[in-house]
Automatic annotation (TrEMBL):
<dbReference type="GO" id="GO:0004750">
    <property type="term" value="F:D-ribulose-phosphate 3-epimerase activity"/>
</dbReference>
<dbReference type="InterPro" id="IPR000056">
    <property type="entry name" value="Ribul_P_3_epim-like"/>
</dbReference>
<dbReference type="InterPro" id="IPR013785">
    <property type="entry name" value="Aldolase_TIM"/>
</dbReference>
<keyword id="KW-0479">Metal-binding</keyword>
<keyword id="KW-0413">Isomerase</keyword>
<dbReference type="InterPro" id="IPR026019">
    <property type="entry name" value="Ribul_P_3_epim"/>
</dbReference>
<comment type="similarity">
    <text>Belongs to the ribulose-phosphate 3-epimerase family.</text>
</comment>
<dbReference type="GO" id="GO:0005975">
    <property type="term" value="P:carbohydrate metabolic process"/>
</dbReference>
<protein>
    <recommendedName>
        <fullName>Ribulose-phosphate 3-epimerase</fullName>
        <ecNumber>5.1.3.1</ecNumber>
    </recommendedName>
</protein>
<dbReference type="GO" id="GO:0006098">
    <property type="term" value="P:pentose-phosphate shunt"/>
</dbReference>
<dbReference type="InterPro" id="IPR011060">
    <property type="entry name" value="RibuloseP-bd_barrel"/>
</dbReference>
<dbReference type="Pfam" id="PF00834">
    <property type="entry name" value="Ribul_P_3_epim"/>
</dbReference>
<dbReference type="GO" id="GO:0005737">
    <property type="term" value="C:cytoplasm"/>
</dbReference>
<dbReference type="GO" id="GO:0046872">
    <property type="term" value="F:metal ion binding"/>
</dbReference>
C-alpha cells in the first residue's frame, strides 16, 4: 500500500489540531513534520518540544524530516518526541551513520534524505541499514515550490538500486495529485503533500486518499 503523508508545514497553525483530526478521520495515518534550523535551511520550524506536543495531540504516527545542521546534536531530543519515522539529510553531516544507528537502536524507522543535487548512488553504503529514502523534489526548506521533473527518473534509479530490499521511497515537495500518481508509478510508496492537501479543498483530500490503494481516477464511479 502507498501512503500519502500530509506535511503540516503547510497547515494553518492556529487550527493545527482540528486540521489533523479531519485528516485522521479521512484515514491518513502518518503526519510529515519538517524540523528546520535556520542554518541548513533558511526557515526555522518545529523544534523537538513542539513535535512532542503535536505527538501527544494527534492520533497519527509522525515522520520527522530533520533539516538541520549537525543532526547528531539533536537526534536524542527528536527520539524523545516519540516519532515513529525520522529522516536525516545526507548533506547535513559527516556523521550520518551515527545518526541512523541511533534511530535504529531506538526501534524507529530510519530514512536518509537527498537534495535534488545529490547523486542517488551515494546511498549505496546505507542500503543494509535504512528503512526509507526521502527524495527531495524541491530545494528543502521552502514551501510552494515547483516539483522538479527529473525527480521521476531519480525515483526509478533508486528503485533499481534498492532491488528486493525492504526500503521505501518517499518523495517531498511540490506534489499534487497527478504528480503523486507519477511518483507512485515510478516506485515511490510514501508521498508527502503540503499545500495541495491543506488548501481547504475536500476533493483534493478524497482523491489523494484514494491513491493510497492504487485507485485510478478513471476507475472511480
Ligand atoms: C519543504 C518541506 C516539505 C513541504 C512540502 O522543504 O520538506 O515537506 O512542506 O510542501 P509542498 O507540498 O507544499 O511543496
Ligand atoms: Zn519535508
Amino acid at each position: 500500500m502507498n501512503l500519502i503523508l500530509p506535511s503540516i508545514f503547510a497547515a494553518d497553525l492556529m487550527n493545527l489540531k482540528s486540521e489533523c483530526d479531519v485528516l485522521y478521520e479521512e484515514g491518513f495515518q502518518v503526519l510529515h513534520v519538517d524540523m528546520m534550523d535556520g542554518n541548513f535551511v533558511p526557515h526555522i520550524a518545529f523544534g523537538p518540544e513542539q513535535i512532542k506536543n503535536i505527538k501527544k495531540q494527534v492520533n497519527m504516527k509522525l515522520d520527522v524530516h530533520m533539516m538541520v545542521s549537525a543532526p547528531e546534536q539533536h537526534i536524542a531530543s527528536v527520539l524523545d518526541t516519540g516519532a515513529e519515522m525520522i529522516s536525516v539529510h545526507y548533506e547535513s553531516t559527516p556523521h550520518i551513520r551515527f545518526v541512523i544507528d541511533q534511530i535504529k537502536q531506538h526501534g524507529r524507522k530510519a530514512g536518509i534524505v537527498i537534495n535534488p543535487g545529490t547523486d542517488t548512488s551515494l546511498l549505496k553504503p546505507f542500503l543494509n541499514i535504512i528503512d526509507y529514502v526521502l527524495v527531495m523534489s524541491i530545494n528543502p526548506g521552502r514551501p510552494n515550490q515547483v516539483f522538479m521533473e527529473e525527480t521521476i527518473d531519480r525515483i526509478r534509479e533508486l528503485k533499481v538500486m534498492i532491488g528486493q530490499r525492504d526500503i521505501q521511497i518517499e518523495v517531498d515537495g511540490g506534489v499534487d495529485e497527478s504528480i503523486a500518481s507519477q511518483c507512485i508509478e515510478a516506485g515511490a510508496s510514501l508521498v508527502v503533500i503540503g499545500s495541495y492537501l491543506f488548501s481547504n479543498n475536500k476533493a483534493h483530500v478524497k482523491n489523494l486518499k484514494s491513491l493510497e490503494h492504487g485507485e485510478r481516477k478513471d476507475e472511480r464511479k
